[in-house]
Amino acid sequence: xxxxxxxxxxxxxxxxxxxxxxxxxxxxxxxxxxxxxxxxxxxxxxxxxxxxxxxxxxxxxxxxxxxxxxxxxxxxxxxxxxxxxxxxxxxxxxxxxxxxxxxxxxxxxxxxxxxxxxxxxxxxxxxxxxxxxxxxxxxxxxxxxxxxxxxxxxxxxxxxxxxxxxxxxxxxxxxxxxxxxxxxxxxxxxxxxxxxxxxxxxxxxxxxxxxxxxxxxxxxxxxxxxxxxxxxxxxxxxxxxxxxxxxxxxxxxxxxxxxxxxxxxxxxxxxxxxxxxxxxxxxxxxxxxxxxxxxxxxxxxxxxxxxxxxxxxxxxxxxxxxxxxxxxxxxxxxxxxxxxxxxxxxxxxxxxxxxxxxxxxxxxxxxxxxxxxxxxxxxxxxxxxxxxxxxxxxxxxxxxxxxxxxxxxxxxxxxxxxxxxxxxxxxxxxxxxxxxxxxxxxxxxxxxxxxxxxxxxxxxxxxxxxxxxxxxxxxxxxxxxxxxxxxxxxxxxx
Length: 494
Prior knowledge:
The protein is mainly α. It is 73% helix and 3% strand. A two-stranded antiparallel sheet has the order 1-2. A hairpin with a 4-residue loop joins strand 1 (63-71) and strand 2 (76-82). The protein starts with 5 loop residues before the first helix and ends in a 5-residue tail after the last helix.
């Protein structure tokens, strides 16, 4: 019955569920709001499952395509479709949304309906970004997702939440405006079409490609975020509530990386090849320099935020190796980082809920009071450091291997993350978990409850399953990746 509308369901079910949650009104109906939110998130995940079960891994063509006229005067369509690149990201987003709703179940006591609704609506909008095949539709979803995230940080965040929310909004808005100008230019160059796949075959001169490359690079680079436009991320993470940090790290950063594969590489292949060195340089700075910055942090959230920047540097590095191994490695790293960063921010949230501090110095000896939590935290810390048999190792190893084939020094600098990552993650873990209990408040901390075990246990299974057997992920994306690289290799200079 819904076979032709799966992508619409994936987008609109969470959004409509969010509206239904808002309709519950004040905090007197908080329990009802929570249950409607959970039902909406679960339903949003369930309707995404057919994308996996019905996906054909043997073709690079767009699947589950929907198309209807939206604004005929400008040839703008409600045009949706997924391939092996976008489908796993939709599933990841729908999955993380369920966890975020459960994570905020007891913690959020103020404006509960609005909080839950913001996450559900944002989930639908992000799915719209990954499924859009029309440039204007993509732009509407791309900008729309900023609004609930801005509210999540600005309303439920920490003491400096307004500053952090404004900084995040202004950074991303500036890049987005340049992207819109580029899209309008492409509209005229392609004969009056906003169809993204038509843009992939549009012939552009080198000057136009270069200018648009930097416009798109700023738009998507801010979202990743790449060095040096990364400074909004630590502020946003520190001020955001736990759920906001989880979605920010696990999902919204991936939107920027996705833009590279849907816009920059296929539409601007010659500029991408010519300027690959520039993106590689920025990526390696993120991997090495930001790793050292993470080492100096005293706030756990800030440390993991900088860690995210370093790990996303691997993603952009892999993309510009122009090899299936590198590109698939970048995509695997995106999904793995979604699991690992979500788990680490949830772990920090567990500690913050009990002690109301993110400072490393305020902890110590946690294993004596929270042994089950310490075991989960250890697994995710190891995955963040790139331990073999965890998902954190797979993508990094693939990108390093791809880099070694292009240039030894690229691989050498990239591999420093295995040292720096282990240094900042395990040093943080040692100071927080091991040693004697010196803070009397730590003495009173209780181990994880059933809800927290469920959240961390599900993510632990994901991290280990992907680390031990990544083949299902690479099988889904392989044909789309090979086709994209073949497309990029064909020069479209006039």
